[in-house]
Write a structure and sequence with these properties.
Layout (H helix, E strand, L loop, with lengths): L4 H17 L3 H7 L5 E6 L6 H4 L7 E6 L9 H13 L4 E7 L3 H8 L4 H6 L1 H9 L1 H5 L4 H21 L2 H8 L5 E8 L4 E9 L10
Bound molecules: cobalt (II) ion.
């Protein structure tokens, strides 16, 4: 290994620290994961899922992409949801956006380029849907932050309407879908008061 030695050094110390407090940790984890949560978050480097909610490896199943989107034709995201719901039987799916999201900003300002522009199309649709409410705000960062929240709400709706989640609810599987937003300015999570636990509750999402 000729490069990035410091990352391997960090990794060795990290594993040692965990083993110090729990010598069998990795042996136990190697046998199975015990994830109760699926986290769908933004790829932004300031949003490390495990650290934000302070859990150890094995406790949270993670999917991240730019602007935490759940698109019904995205095989990557859908496969993650399917594995989490059908195999791991997670009890919670958390869609977590963040204020000041660059993807949301690019969608609002129309600055996405190439394939990224296609990816952000869904946020542009959310913007169009709520344009009067968003444009009524004077401050650009307030506009972006409101669209960040509305985007999370839309993605929660998208998770709830996947055939995977629909099928799980129909079979009586215990599964809640949550909408959260993270504030990169103070490190705190905010619950958007969205907790959908059945198909009947989808219509209550604003
Ligand atoms: Co982001």
């Amino acid at each position: 290994m000729r490069v990035l030695k410091h990352l391997f050094e960090n990794n060795r110390k990290w594993a040692e620290n965990i083993k110090k407090s729990d010598p069998d940790f990795f042996t136990r984890r190697a046998k199975q994961q015990d994830a109760e949560y699926l986290w769908i978050g933004c790829s932004d480097s300031r949003l490390p899922a495990m650290e934000i909610v302070d859990v150890l490896p094995g406790q949270i199943f993670v999917h991240r992409n730019i602007a935490n989107l759940v698109i019904q034709t995205d095989m990557n995201c859908l496969s993650v949801i399917q594995y989490a719901v059908s195999v791991l039987k997670v009890k919670h799916i958390i869609v977590c956006g963040h204020y000041g999201c660059g993807g949301v900003q690019a969608a609002i300002e129309n600055t996405g380029d190439g394939v990224l522009d296609n990816w952000l199309m869904q946020i542009k649709n959310v913007y169009q849907k709520h344009q009067a409410k968003i444009d009524a705000l004077k401050n650009t960062s307030d506009k972006i932050d409101l669209l960040c929240e509305l985007n999370v709400i839309q993605q929660v709706r998208n998770v709830c309407t996947t055939t995977i989640v629909q099928k799980a609810w129909k079979a009586g599987q215990e599964l809640a879908v949550h909408g959260w937003i993270y504030n990169i300015r103070d490190g705190l999570l905010k619950d958007l008061d969205l907790c959908v636990t059945s198909s009947a509750e989808i219509s209550e999402i604003q």
